[in-house]
Amino acid sequence: MRRGAVWLAVVVSVHAWRASILNGLSGMSLPRIVLFLVGAVLALFSSSCGDSLLWAVGTTEKLGLLTSFSLQDRRVGVFSELFEREIVLVRPESRFAVEYIPFDLFDANRNWKTIAVLGDLSRTGPIDDAVSFLISPETRAEMASKPVAYRIIENVWARGQAVILIHAKRSEDLEQFIADSGDSLLDNYEVALRTAIGPAVLSIGHNGDMEQYVRDHYGFEIGIPKGYSVGEDAEANVVRLYRVLQGEPARFALLHWMPVEEAPQTPEDLLDLRDELANFYYDGDFAHRDRSTASWGSFRGERAMVLSGLWQNKKYVIGGPFHSFGFVSGDRFFFLDGSVYNPPGKKLPYMREVMAVVRTFRDLEAG
Question: Which of 157, 227, 262, 275 has the fewest CB atoms within 10 Å of its CB?
Answer without folding.
Answer: 262
